[in-house]
Design a protein that fits this description.
Order of helices and strands: HHEEHEEEEEEEEEEEEEEEEEEEEEE
Structural class: mainly beta
Oligomer: single chain
CATH architecture of the largest domain: Beta Barrel
CATH topology of the largest domain: Porin
Strand order of the largest sheet: 13-14-15-16-17-18-19-20-21-22-23-24
Number of helices: 3
Radius of gyration: 46 Å
CATH superfamily of the largest domain: monomeric porin ompg
Number of strands: 24
Strand content: over 45%
Low-confidence stretches: 25-33, 41-56, 61-83, 92-105
Helix content: under 10%
Length: 435
């Protein structure tokens, strides 16, 4: 019985040995047990146990250590821990996103101008002009805007513009304006200027119409029935601006007819051309005025002169200019007393001041006062005062109320001995449209 058990153990050992020896790895680790002559295993040799079949290498979860791997310090344990590559990539992306400057989001140049306000808002459209620290911008969605220059943070143009600076330097090209610098790019070179030295911006196109802005105000009142009356008044303002000059054309007229009889018929045209030397000093080589009012016994009166002007206040909300110079005046009367010439000409002195302020975001106040000092034959001195309150209704439409005061110190009598009143007051109420 013991013999059979020993043989059985022997044969099992031989079979297992053949199986395990077929694997080179296992063969190196397993040795053949000592077998005694009677076929029994030696007592000093332990019974072999079956090893794991096909053992796999355990995965290594330790991060691969590289020279540029970022480190994180654990302040609690004062130990340094290496990051995994995935953590390093995610951290790098987060850092780049956090370090993204606002300049990286600037729009690419397209067929439009872009500007950014200090509030961070972006506007797309076209620059009209910039003078007296006021930028006119035609927005694609908001139409014509007038923006304070201090509210502009960044500008990038798609078309060339002409710029004028404090030191009489001029440059024309595509512009990029930051908070401190102005970059002007042409086909030949790039120029950089200080933003604080900028005086004006005008269109760099050769087209004449791009240099003009205008506004028309009109009012019509018609009555029919017991009294037939027609009242009409209008005001036209047009400006042509370049980087170093400004041309202004102003018209103001009123007409009233009652029962086929004219009771009011006056017209005034003013033309002024200014050349800027510095931010505040300008020369007016041509200033001209045409005036007609038969009810003041003035068939026509024309002035032409020259003046020098200076800007007293030039803030974001208020602008105040004064100017003065000699002029030549010629007056033709409707009728005069016997022995008096129907036409008179004389040298005069013209003093003018213009005031423009923003009362709030919707209401502007504009005023012009002009005095002409002449001889007694033409009425001594005369002055003109115009005050306008503009209330914005839409981007293009305004509600305007204009007060006009004309005064002649010594009106000239007509042939019938009638002397016109010294003062003439008018109130014009109408709608203004920006062209």
């Amino acid at each position: 019985m013991t013999r059979h058990r020993s043989l059985k153990t022997f044969f099992i050992s031989i079979i297992l040995l053949n199986i395990f020896c077929s694997s080179p790895t296992l063969a190196e680790d397993i040795t053949t047990p000592d077998i005694q002559a009677d076929g029994q295993l030696s007592s000093d040799t332990p019974t072999p146990q079956p090893p794991l079949i096909d053992p796999q290498q355990q995965p290594n979860y330790e991060p691969e250590i590289t020279d540029d791997a970022p480190e994180i310090k654990n302040t609690a344990s004062e130990q340094t821990i290496k990051k995994t590559p995935e953590q390093a990539i995610n951290n790098t992306a987060t850092k780049q996103e956090a370090q993204t400057d606002w300049t990286d989001t600037r729009p690419q140049r397209v067929s439009a101008d872009w500007l950014q306000l200090t509030s961070g808002e972006w506007l797309r459209g076209r620059i009209i002009a910039m003078q007296k620290d006021l930028l006119e911008f035609d927005s694609d969605e908001l139409d014509l805007l007038e923006l304070k220059w201090e509210k502009i943070k960044y500008v990038k143009s798609s078309e060339p513009y002409s710029l004028r600076f404090d030191n009489s330097t001029q440059a024309t090209g595509a512009i990029e304006i930051t908070q401190n610098e102005i970059h002007v790019t042409t086909d030949y070179d790039d120029q950089t200027f200080k933003r604080s030295q900028l005086l004006s911006i005008a269109s760099g196109h050769e087209t004449e119409i791009s240099k003009w802005t205008s506004k028309i105000t009109f009012s019509v009142n018609a009555r029919r029935g017991n009294t037939d009356q027609t009242d009409f008044s209008s005001k036209i303002n047009a400006k042509r601006r370049t980087i170093n000059s400004r041309l202004m054309f102003d018209y103001l007229g009123s007409f009233t007819k009652i029962e086929q009889t004219e009771t009011i018929n006056n017209h005034r045209v003013n033309i002024t051309y200014d050349i800027f030397f510095t931010r505040d000093l300008f020369l007016t080589p041509v200033t001209a005025e045409f005036f007609r009012d038969p009810f003041q016994n003035i068939e026509q009166r024309a002035n032409i002169g020259i003046a020098v002007g200076y800007t007293i206040i030039n803030s974001n909300d208020t602008e105040w200019d004064i100017s003065g110079g000699p002029s030549y005046q010629e007056t033709k009367f409707v009728s005069v007393q016997p022995g008096q010439a129907p036409k008179d000409s004389t040298a005069t002195l013209i003093l003018t001041t213009k005031f423009d302020t923003e009362l709030n975001s919707k209401v502007d106040l504009e005023g012009t006062y002009s005095v002409t000092l002449g001889d007694s034959k033409t009425g001594g001195y005369n002055h003109r005062s115009i005050l306008t309150i503009e209330t914005e209704l839409t981007d293009k439409l305004d509600f305007d109320v204009t007060g006009v005061w004309d005064r002649i110190k010594n009106p000239v009598q007509d042939l019938d001995g009638n002397t016109p009143e010294r003062d003439d007051f008018r109130i014009l109420i109408g709608l203004g449209y920006d062209l």
